[in-house]
Amino acid sequence: MERRSLLPYLLILPAFAYLLFFVGYPLVQALYLAFTKNGALSLDTVRRTVNNYYFWSALKNTIALAAVIVPIQVALAVVLALLLNKAFKGRDLAIYALVIPLTISDVASGLIWYSMLSPYGFLNKFLMNIGLTSHPIYFFGYQYRTREFFVIVLSEIWRSTAIVFVMILAGLQMISKDYLEAAEVFGANYWTRLRRIVLPLLKPSIQSALIIRTLFAMQIFGVVWILAGRDVPVLAGEGFYQLMEIKDYGVASIYALVIAGLSLLLGILYVKFLKAEYLEVKT
Amino acid sequence: MKRLFGLLLVVVVVFGVVASGCISGGGETTSETGTSKTTTATEKVTLTWLSTQLTPPEERAFVQQTLLKGFTDETGINVNFVPVSYTDMVTRLDAEEKTGKVTIDVVGDLHGGMDYMASKGWLMDLSGMPKLEGRTFIGTFEKYSVINGKKVYVPWMSATYVMVVNKEAFKYLPDGLTEDDVMKGTDKWTYDAFLAWAKKLKDSTGQPQVGFPAGPKGLFVRFLHGYIYPSYTGYQAKEFDSPDAVTMWNYLKELWPYVHPSSTTWDAMSDPLLKGEVLIAWDHTARIKDAITTKPDQFVVVPVPRGPKGRGFIVVLAGLAIPNNAPHKDEAWKLIDYLTKPETQIKVLEKVGFFPTVKEASGKLPEGPLKILAEGVTAQSSTSDALVAMIPNLGSKGGDFKDIYRTAFERIVLNGEDPAKVTSELKPKLIGLFTEAGVEVP
């Protein structure tokens, strides 16, 4: 009896120790750096952070980027998954092609788009060669922050829609054909089947994809840093800047904690409001 | 259950002790045994050289594989080159000096850092060391290396920030400005003339042709506090919100439409120059060196323009010092001797773009790109209206210092806020940094 009850604890021990050292310890350290000054509790670092010129725009930009990127990605991924869920010749190839950007890091993706859209990049050279424009179109620079924002969105959609797509396609393939066939027998058309059966059953996959993508969106950094530098400040970028350039570990910790807090909050909201519904349970 | 929890706790603690031992103990023990063994067991000495300079991987490889190999071949002394950050160096030296167990033989750092370490009394007075033969140190550098009457360090390398001009740009000089004015840095080569030139370049080519490294890791803030501020106000920080400063900011606002918009994403100007995106750029000598070595016929290095108060520019000076109680003082001096020889200094210039601190080295420069660079730097430092600025030493607050200028620039020039309002808002914070660090406001 005694031995059996010990086993589960022993099994989770390595994971627990790992978390303690690589998550717990840095977290405590971050809290310490953020809320103490000379060893005493203090809100000085917090004040320094919120008074920083870049803090609020970093917060705003991070949320704005997530708000623009994530819905587009999910919608796009659902459409693509529905299209590719049918059997047709070359389907595997199409799936491989779609998934390729998954192998590219955000920094690399940023560099690819930068070289494509910079004043003397492919796009501008092409436009000038065919005589459509006489001067390069600028996509980067403080004066063109809106354009920078959309290039970031484009780059992120290009690179990371694949992960959402994979999750949703997996979800689609889990849906039993029986439901759809039964619906067809009763005369439900494609849209009804999609609305009443496929999408509700896809909810768990969409939820996981949303959570994963939103959390990653909170950490968005490499691609922004490459394409826009600090023209479009984001939380992770500012945290990095404070740590590497300013050497203000306290403020950098607060940025990290803000990202963690936001992620936690969004995770809770998703789980609360997007609870998966199962048809069996409902009926 | 209680027993189980106790067991769990013991296991976690044991794991913690073992893991932390593995993580922090490793590096220290090897280096310590390394030095002590060599001093007692054999004749061979291994020097420990901490440096905040030459730390990027490529430069580090050059120091370890080329530079120090030459030294070891010559003297038989091994050198352990330890590239560190300024903060790490100060923390380690502080700890070693306090415990009296010094393991560092040589420190290499910028003037500001040396100044700080000297004020703490950690550095040895070098005036008693044997004379370094066959070299004359540049006067200004020699002067800076004596702090409070003590010869604290030996000038090692220097660098500065200059303007690079693509010869193409000379076709569009504004009226009243000649190529010679720009090359030699005469009285006519002013910031106003620069604005007229930038304007003419944009009007004639349809593109903004001036570039600054104003990206997140670019050194544009150095231009603000070390070049244009002194040129307009006579000081780097003292007159931060004065009417002269407001004139300066308004000037920058006027100039900015003629500056390439991608400037806020550029960290170094070599690439934009080579790609032909801009014809005139300002940057650190090391960061434009590539452009000049790749296309030496295309570019010239020229002094920066002058402002109403003179021609402000920064001289970055790195030195070599020996800590008090260093274990191998004589061998350390031999390393300093080797590193400041004209031949070694040329090697450093060729490889990493830091300039020699001894006069004899200039005679040994080969024709070509490096000469272009060196001539530009010399022309800048020998202008009669030179206002030399040193990067202030604020220790860990150095980042905050840069951030204040960066914020002022973003708010005033990029966002169009009122310069008088922004500078008066930021000034107390700026002055606070100096008061906190106990450094005179430059």
TrEMBL record, chain A:
Keywords: Membrane, Transmembrane, Transmembrane helix, Transport
Record-stated family: Belongs to the binding-protein-dependent transport system permease family.
PROSITE patterns from the UniProt entry: ABC_TM1 (PS50928)
N-terminal signal peptide: none
InterPro entries for this protein: MetI-like, MetI-like_sf, Sugar_ABC_transporter
Organism for this UniProt entry: Thermococcus celer Vu 13 = JCM 8558
Cell location: Cell membrane; Membrane
Residues annotated as transmembrane: 7-28, 63-84, 93-114, 126-142, 149-172, 210-228, 249-271
Protein name: ABC transporter permease
Single GO biological process annotation from the record: transmembrane transport
GO CC terms, sorted: plasma membrane
Membrane topology: Multi-pass membrane protein
Primary location: membrane
Domain of life: Archaea
ABC transmembrane type-1 domain sequence ranges: 59-270
Automatic annotation (TrEMBL), chain B:
One Pfam family from the record: SBP_bac_1
Sorted UniProt keywords: Cell membrane, Lipoprotein, Membrane, Palmitate, Signal
InterPro entries from the UniProt entry: Bact_solute-bd_prot1 (IPR050490), SBP (IPR006059)
Protein name: ABC transporter substrate-binding protein
